[in-house]
Amino acid sequence: MKFETPQTIEAATALLAADAGARVLAGGTDLLVRLRAGQIEPSAVIDIKRIKGMSDITQEDGGWRIGAAVPCSVMGEHDGLKAAYPGVVEGAELIGSTQVQGRCTMVGNLCNAGPAGDSVPAMVAAGASVRIAGPEGTRDVPVIDIPLSPGKTSLAKGEFVTSVFLPARPARSSDAYLRFIPRTEMDIAVVGCAVNLSLNEDGTVKEAHVSLGAVAPKVLDVPEAAAALIGSKCEDAALEALATAATAAATPIDDKRGTVAFRKDVSGVLARRAAKLAYTRAMGEKS
Amino acid sequence: MSRIHVNTTINGDATDYLCEAEDTLLDVLRDQLDMTGSKEGCASGDCGACTVRLDGRLVCSCLVLGAEAEGRTVETIEGMADGETLHPLQKNFIDKAALQCGICTPGILVAAKDLLERNPDPTEEEVRYWLAGNLCRCTGYDKIIRTVLETAAEMRGAA
Amino acid sequence: MAKDEFTPRTFKVVGTRPPRPDGLDKVTGRARYGADMSAPGMLIGLCLRSPHAHARIKSIDTSAAEAMKGVKAVVTRADFTTTPEDQGTRDILDNVMAGEKALYDGHTVAAVAATSRSVARAALKAIKVEYEVLPHVVDVDEAMKPDAPVLHEGRQQESVPKGYSQNVLARSQYGHGDIEAGFKKADIIVERSFTTAATHQGYIEPHACLATMGNDGQGDLWCCTQGHYMVRNTCSAILGMDAGRLKVTASEIGGGFGGKTTVFLEPVALMLSKKAGKPVKMTMSRDEVLRASGPTASTSIDIKIGMTKEGKITAAQGEFRYQSGAFYAMNGALGAMCGFAPYDLENLQSVGWEVVTNRPKAAAYRAPGAPMAAFAVESVMDELAKELDMDPIELRLKNAAEEGTKSAYGPTYPAIGLKATLEAAKAHPHWSAPLGKNQGRGLACGFWFNFGGDTCVSLMINPDGTVSLSEGNPDIGGSRAAMTMMAAEELGIPYEHVRTVIADTATLGQNEVTDGSRVTFAVGLATIKAARHAIEIMKTRAAATWGIEPDAVEWVDGAAQPAGPNAGKFPPMTLKEIAAIASNTGGPIAGHHEVNAEGAGVSFGTHIADTEVDPETGAVKVVRYTVFQDAGKAVHPDYVEGQLQGGAVQGIGWALNEEYIYGKDGTLQNAGYLDYRIPVASDLPMIEPVILEIPNPGHPYGVRGVGETGIVPPLATLANAVSRAAGVRMTSLPMSPPKLLAAIKAS
Questions:
Q1: Residue C566 has what pLDDT?
Q2: Is A52 domain-assigned?
């Protein structure tokens, strides 16, 4: 195995294009686990952290661009980002321990293409996109189109994600992410749910996005759940409709972390709770 | 197999070593530099026994490649005491019996020191969540959490 | 039973909380654990493990691996040509290196030693094993059925009735009286079935060793173990060498909880080293630890208890079916003995079953067999308390065993502390504190035997008046401090003047493993006796100096002095003064004591937990937890508290989230800390320990073992708390959120 530290995006894509067995290293909190367990045997590891801009969080067109190598703990320490997208940041901050937070990245979490990545549902609900660099140049792709199935992404040979973009959002908007795990920390989500809301001046929901994790082969966007909230003030009836839609949308499996019935039930519970939290935040109240 | 030459700073000392690309920072610390205070409990970032600071941030050294440490600074348990003078956390862990078998202790001390440098007055809940990635199977955490809180109070008083 | 060793006294050192002697090493990273040792020219050893739950090994081709550059030795079962004499050791050999069959996912089938880890890994891949996959069974009830896949033929004991699978190795029965008559007298009978999942000890330090075998037939072994004498005896028997030619040194140990009371890597590493002619280091990965070491039994238990409406038990019956993995272990019997031990029963029948399945061989785990039994019995007791609308403590006090009670497992109890723990619980503010919404309070009792066993201690009086104490049991949680304290107490010198070391197997006589909560009791007893031996010598030296009879000298506060005015008038001679002139009064002074320690006092505990249940998700939060346990005498109270707290939290993990999860193919699905979910710091409240001190008549200071009892009550305590909070009786552990939510929805 070779270890490469390209200084530019072009150098990185050239390395990746030239070697089908090469893997991108940013935080390494998934890659190194699999390397150590013998699940992967890459011919080269391409460390992108020394490329300029990979570790930056910047404002762009009223939204936020987050470099592919930004550790989640750095996101949690960024007041501007946290104020704009508390749900995205709380999702990112739920990945692993304090120590893992110091290394793990949202892009890694996304490109790992696990169904249960904690940072992914909130990015989907936020309508986030990623910028992809490759031998043919760059392209922007919605986050939801990156994972295809467990462990598989839509990235082509030689491509890698360089950043995530969270779009600008109107006033009276906010988001929230909740997950269920058996312990209080250190587990993979059994169910994850993100809700992103924009409100009218009268406090009714103008726009809503609901996204579920860990209940399907990949992250789900659930428009029928979101529709239940439009025009409401997240009253009990709307929340019940939301929960029912979320439960119906979930198509989970039985595995060591949970059962189908449990995951479907909890999808509804978390949707309800996350919607309430996002609504409270969008109203500018303390959550 | 050609090895990678790495120049880095460990516990304030300029250090260099040769490593294979697959070697983790933990492998390098333990097997090449004989700094065995950092422990391997899982090699998957789930136990925290290998906790060190890399460029001022807590990491599991089992999830860092040795080659990544080029030009960076690494702080391990071996650098926590200042000569003969123990860090207050180290002293209190002994005095308040915050360890039983001691295998998780180095990782917990490194993590707790980082917490107190960031937040000199943490709540019990903050300490518990900060240390959630440091597994301890002996103590039930009670004396560890108490000792971190009491040391924080003591250090605030001394400051 | 208990010998009359205990004499009341006022302690000066015992009962204080000095810093532990190994503290500095352990907070600075200096302490050397199993994987922290290396040797010049050392090779790295790795195991090849079966991917199948049950398979006949048709052939193993190691030629490609042997031909690889850097590979220095490959071993398979064919290299182990000695057949150990006793069945237990043969089982251990079969477990550390599979013979004709691989009996579980993770069972070692071959091992290599190579110049680096990467070469060793490549060599493992080059070994070709041809398996014939066989049907498997991992569930205890399934394994007992007559048509279940059979692991071993011809190993069933005569105690097993006809109609069961050969997997049922033994049945044992305990009890007395007439249960049929007893149940007839009952006003109320509750009968329930329970299951518990297998759990792992979960020590953070994986098994590790460094083995050196020369062609002179001598060996050295460094390893993390709870008993290096056991390692020496077992490895030498497996390798067919004299025990005296193998020296084993115990490293610092990073947790064991019973899981390090046997060998896994050690005989393999010795064989690799013998073949390679170089030192071999082996370390398990976490995956290997979970797949191939230590777990405890999973169980299926039926309990029936009858009571009068006043709450007096009229009869009790239990069937304790335990699967202990691929080999025999006495677990069901221990469950059958312990489950009802807290109660004074007129009519009892308690039956234990030992069953093998295609899982790793169970190792001891803290009070092995008892927690599951207590879970079942104490759950039924709680249900009876609810049915009778009685306070759970009052109900237990009405039936509690005390001095003179005939125990569930036979002997009559001497002074015991069960009622004291119940009374303390009743008086504690926790028992009467108000509960919040969705909260429930649970209480349960637990029992463990405790053990003594073979023990050697040597105590040297150094020329400067300091003392060097050698013991032969690894210090797993502060026992060096406890021994140092007892030596200082007995000798009458400051704690700081004694230094305790763990001797290797060539330096001190045979010592039983650090198990059965025996060390503070048995090694403490031997330490006190060794100190008394040294004192006798020192009194003799003082007597000779003074020209009086040795029995006219007494030892007070660290000095010899004439016993009374008739003995003569001499100023006291301190230990330091006697030590300084020892060379001239007969030579160096040392005390020693060798004993098979009897009189380990049984131990009881009572726990209270408050839990809060989220009725929408089945999530359980432990809100408050208090432990009451009889320690006899707490030598170093900090470390006694630590045992109580640690045991409780392991039990909380067992009750809520820990479990071995097997797939349909019989492979372990959660062989890592990510999905084998031990409690993390944020899962827990503070654990309040309340130490009771009812002296053990069998120890000079009244000490009882405290290590194990703490894990016995929590399973039931949590089950009772959760059942009360959720309004539904939980009879299956762990009470993981999916299971609890399903139970809530079904109720």
A1: 87
A2: no
* Sign of the dihedral defined by the CA atoms of residues A31, A34, A39, A43, in that order: positive
* A73 in contact with chain B, both atoms CB, cutoff 8 A: yes
> In this predicted model, what pLDDT tens digit does every residue of B7-65 receive, in sequence order?
999 999 999 999 999 999 999 999 999 999 999 999 999 999 999 999 999 999 999 99
Q: What pLDDT does A285 receive?
A: 74
- pLDDT at position C61: 98
| DSSP codes joined into one string, B44-63 | SSSS-TTEEEETTEEEEGGG
Q: What residue ranges define each of the domains in chain C, with the CATH number in brackets? A: 23-31+452-597 (3.30.365.10), 369-450+601-746 (3.30.365.10)
Peptide bond into C572 cis (omega under 30): no
A222 lies in some domain: yes
Instruction: Quote the number of domains for chain A.
Output: 2
Q: Are residues A122 and A256 part of one domain?
A: no
CA distance C417 to C420: 5
Domain presence at residue A32? yes
Hunting for tokens 């699999």 — which residue is that?
A34
Residues A237 and A187 in one domain: yes
Domain containing A91: what range?
Answer: 2-47+57-166
Element containing residue C417 per DSSP (H, E): none
Which CA distances in Å does A89 have to A54, A55, A283, C689? 18, 16, 19, 39
Confirm whether A208 is domain-assigned: yes
Q: Is the pLDDT of residue C63 over 50?
A: yes
Interface test with C, best of B2, B141, B144, B146 (most C CBs within 10 A): B141
Residue ranges in chain A modelled with pLDDT below 70: 286-287
Distance between CA C172 and CA A136 in Å, rounded? Answer: 74
Predicted local distance difference test score (pLDDT) of residue A287: 54
Report ipTM for this prediction.
0.98
The pLDDT assigned to B1 comes to: 58
Residue C287, chain A, CB below 8 Å: the answer is yes
Look up the CATH number of the domain holding residue A9. Answer: 3.30.465.10
Digit-coded pLDDT (tens) for C75-124? 999 999 999 999 999 999 999 999 999 999 999 999 999 999 999 999 99
CB pairs under 8 A between A and B: 89
Interface test with B, best of C17, C20, C26 (most B CBs within 10 A): C26
Cβ separation of A269 and C616 shorter than 8 Å? Answer: yes
Q: What is the pLDDT of residues C499-517, one digit of tens each?
A: 999 999 999 999 999 999 9
Task: Please give the structure tokens belonging to residue C439.
Answer: 């909260």
Under an 8 A CB cutoff, do A184 and C617 touch? no
Structural domains of chain B sorted by starting position, each given as residue range(s) with its CATH number in brackets? 4-78 (3.10.20.30), 88-158 (1.10.150.120)
Chain A partners (3+ C-beta pairs within 8 A)? B, C
Q: Considering A145, A166, A187, which residue would you say is the last residue of a domain?
A: A166
* C406 Cβ contact partners less than 8 Å away, ≥ 6 residues apart: C176, C344, C412
Chains in contact with B, where contact means 3 or more Cβ–Cβ distances below 8 Å, are A, C
Q: Is the pLDDT of residue C2 over 60?
A: no
Place C565 in a pLDDT band, splitting at 50, 70 and 90: confident
pTM of this prediction exceeds 0.95: yes
- Strand order of the β-sheet with C589-597 is C498-502, C467-471, C453-461, C589-597
Q: Is A276 helix (H, G, I), strand (E, B) or coil?
A: helix
Enumerate the residues of chain C whose CB falls inside 8 A of the CB of residue A94: none
Please state the three-class secondary structure of C625-679 as a single string.
EEEEEECCCCCCHHHHHHHHHHHHHHHHHHHHCCCCCECCCCCECCCCCCCCCCC
* 3-class SS of residue A173: strand
Q: Which two tokens stand for residue B84?
A: 């003969």
Token code pair at residue C110: 């071959």
Rounded (5°) CA angle A63-A68-A74 = 75
* CA pseudo-torsion sign B66, B71, B76, B79: positive
